[in-house]
Amino acid sequence: MMSYLSFADLGGLTGMGPVVPEPNEAIFHSNWEATAFALSLAMGATGSWNIDMSRRARETQPDYLSLSYYQIWINGLCKLLTAQGLVTDEEIQAGQMLCPALPCPALPCL
């Protein structure tokens, strides 16, 4: 049984209106969005967390409704990276490595 509710689990929120798809909408509006998505997928491949942990990190952000789609992805990634001890909050704020990198486990080639 889940111990939390996320925005995706609610099937929409009363009073928020329908989700209206935008025809011909660009997938990425700027380069940082593509980078955020790629980094999230690449770091998931390290095996440091599973897809459920990744989803929870994205969908339980307190400011979820005020964030763009890719802000949600990058914030979720930062949350996972710090929770797993792969980076520090100070490194995220600085935008660079401040401590020696930890080794990631080698994964078998598929």
From TrEMBL:
The keyword Ubl conjugation does not apply. It holds the Pfam family NHase_beta_N. Residues 7-98 form the Nitrile hydratase beta subunit-like N-terminal domain. InterPro entries: CN_hydtase_beta-like_N, CN_hydtase_beta_C, Elect_transpt_acc-like_dom_sf. Its EC number is 4.2.1.84. The keyword Transit peptide does not apply. It comes from the Bacteria. Keywords: Lyase. One of its GO terms (molecular function) is nitrile hydratase activity. This is Low-molecular weight cobalt-containing nitrile hydratase subunit beta. The lineage of its organism: Bacteria, Pseudomonadati, Pseudomonadota, Betaproteobacteria, Burkholderiales.
